[in-house]
From TrEMBL:
A GO BP annotation: phospholipid homeostasis
Gene: Tlcd1
GO cellular component, one term: plasma membrane
Compartments reported by the entry: Membrane
Descriptive protein name: TLCD1 protein
Amino acid sequence: VPQPAAVRSRPGRVWRWRNLLVSFAHSVLAGLWALFSLWHSPELLSDIQDGYSVSGHLLVCFSSGYFIHDSLDIIFNHQSRSSWEYLVHHAMAISAFVSLIITGRFLVAAVLLLLVEVSNIFLTVRMLLKMSNVPSPALYEANKYINLVVYFAFRLAPQAYLTCYFLRHVELQGQGAFLTANLLLLDAMILMYFSRLLRSDFFPSLRKGSAGRDVDGEKFLID
């Protein structure tokens, strides 16, 4: 994908632009894949702990590979300091997904969590639009409201459902305890990112101390 002039003119943005494009590709593939897996095998939703499908298993493997790739990309390009939140998130996801791949349990929960990638499609488009200084504000405005709707539908709703399910039905020992702890940490991260999104796109007067800050190398949603 050709780099916009606003990206080419700032060397620090080149890595971020390429990294976000890879993230966008993963979001499109994984998000549609998760939707297809649940549509093709809706009976999986009745057995979140022990339900199994080849498609869901391969999806978890595929996304684990992306998280490993993205972590190495951040580290090798010396972006660990500015993107440390991504590294924490990826470490949590990789450790949880590897345990699912090995045991074959809770794969349905992972597929439900990967519905978040549908939301990430529009979140990544938002960041790409901001980086490229797109001349059409209407495009950004339209994506802003779509992003908010899908954030609720594909990020907050599945996360809330799985959190309630794990706290009510999963034994807090062994793998169950490990995944529940990961899920609760992810809850905190998602709510933090949601507050950032609201402040940036809907309540800009509440933003704190970001004026004049150079964020070219930073990947996370901070502005």
